[in-house]
Structure prediction request, 527 residues.
Amino acid sequence: MRKGFVITAIIAIVLTVILSFTASMWWLVALAFVLLVTGMGVHDMNQKKHSIMRTYPVLGRMRYWMEELRPKMYQYFVESDIDGRPINRIDRSTIYQRAKKQTDTMPFGTQLNVYEEGYEWMSHSIAPKDFNTLDHNPRVLIGNKDCGQPYSASIFNVSAMSFGSLSSNAIEALNAGAKIGGFAHNTGEGGLSPYHLKPGGDIIWQIGTGYFGCRDEQGNFSAEVFKKTIDKPQIKMVELKLSQGAKPGHGGILPAKKNTPEIAAIRHVAPYTTIFSPPYHSAFHHPKGLIQFIQELRTLSGGRPTGFKLCIGKKSEFIGICKAMVELDIYPDFITVDGGEGGTGAAPQEFSNYVGAPLMDGLAFVHNMLVGFGIRHHITIIASGKILSGFHLLRAIALGADACNSARAMMMALGCIQALQCNTNKCPTGVATQDPELTVGLVVEDKKVRVANYHEDTIKTFLELTAAAGLDNYKQLTRSHIYRRVFMNEMRTFEDIYPSLKPGCFVNGEIPEKYKQDIEAASADTW
Prediction:
């Protein structure tokens, strides 16, 4: 890396100079070559746009040469359903191009197999609207009757990623990008760090089962510590994490290599030890307890919007939460629905691959349950789980979301190349590592602009799609706007696949047969 290059360069220069005077003048040619390579390396270490070149001078250039050589059609990664069948391919270079403000159009039309089972598309209008007439800064007001400080959020925000999983430079660049673009940055369950606060961007403070940043010496929730931490103007909302899509039913994992003294101090744990968050909360033990705890957090926070995040598992348990809301007449301000396809820095493969409902299934279910119980108007729904493009935003909102969060794409905007080294502390781009020799490659001043650029262009594309659908406002999107090919010769709308419910139908006794068993099994007093 950088130190190795400097040492090697010095040795090479000294040797070639000595040999030029003692052996042969032909060594001057070698000296010229060494000086040329050294100059290239010095340039690489001081430039701020390319993390790999900055960390791996000269050698890092090979990656960018290979990028230029490989055909664009091979730059796709696959989004798959639970069976591994391809649903959609997203050109990841589009994320990089938007982040860098480069052209993200493509020649030769779609490179997807439109006749493949699972292919999805939006129905457009013969009479599309003028994109310029739409609100170019779409936002949603989060906060219900018990909220004292409603928050006007962008419909596209940074999803939960902890300091510890990500580097200090990455966290700071994400928050600074959020500050520029006027969107929110979720801290992840690792606690609030100085790098979240320094840029001044809006923060969603996530609290997980480890209660990092608000725990006592025994690891239990501490109201006193919570009140001290929440007393910061940048914190706009509080999110209680019940589960995440990448490993639902399993606590968070911070490898010992990444648990530095600084991170350990923020989390109130021992440094250089692997930290396993408990798989469940100790502050409550049933649905009513959860809702009462949400109310307590909202009160302690001074009335900030407070909600919870989960990946749908047993449907009866979420229905039990809905019953608890109705019985107590207490509602979270928002619910973040994560999908089983969500990513993480470290998780057992079986949990990543086979546990938790995919986003679209979980999102449609949560929306339907809130509608069926007649409480949808109290709660904002946020979708999280491989939200990468304007179409993904449109698809999630059509299913019932009010806003979306993204982690993976925001990391790519930072420069992540999916090296899959997140859990080893060897991330070559400096995004997911605590090694200072690697984090030096990520320059906050450059990457914060890329994060803001990506957000801006993705919102723009989303609004262009909305206009193409003939709509004046994205809130007019419905499940009937999205189609999926379910067989070679059969297409269905999302309304066909995920039928909507009548508001309050459960209260009126009109319970569809598919939900009866789960509703009967659900209880507000026990999981």
In short: The longest strand covers residues 235-241. The chain is about 40% helix and 15% strand. The chain has one domain: 133-520. Residues 96 and 495 are 33 Å apart (CA to CA).
